[in-house]
Specification:
With 81 residues, this protein is mainly beta. The protein has one helix at residues 71-80, and strands at residues 3-5, 11-14, 19-22, 39-43, 51-55, 58-64. It is built from one helix and six strands, in the order E-E-E-E-E-E-H. The longest helix has 10 residues, at 71-80.
């Protein structure tokens, strides 16, 4: 799949119409993504995110737009670095 829209840093829309919210700690990994970037959606096997977007060398944790991150888990992961 390719990127249809990535106008907001934390939201990416793919050409299949799916919209994903990027984990705050992974935003920097998407800086090189362009509309030509090939993105693969993979089911995640963790408690933090439902899926992972893989594009180039980047693996980015995501949830569907409209869902909410667990504040406690986000703080814990960001604190760990």
């Amino acid at each position: 799949m390719r990127i249809r829209s990535h106008s907001e840093s934390h939201i990416v829309e793919l050409d299949d119409g799916s919209r994903w919210q990027i984990f705050p700690g992974d935003l920097d990994l998407t800086l090189n993504w362009t509309p030509e970037s090939e993105i693969v959606v993979v089911l995640a096997n963790d408690d933090l995110s439902s899926h992972v977007l893989v594009g180039g060398d980047a693996k980015v944790r995501v949830i569907a737009q409209g869902e909410n991150w667990s504040v406690g888990e986000v703080k814990s992961v960001l604190k760990e670095g």
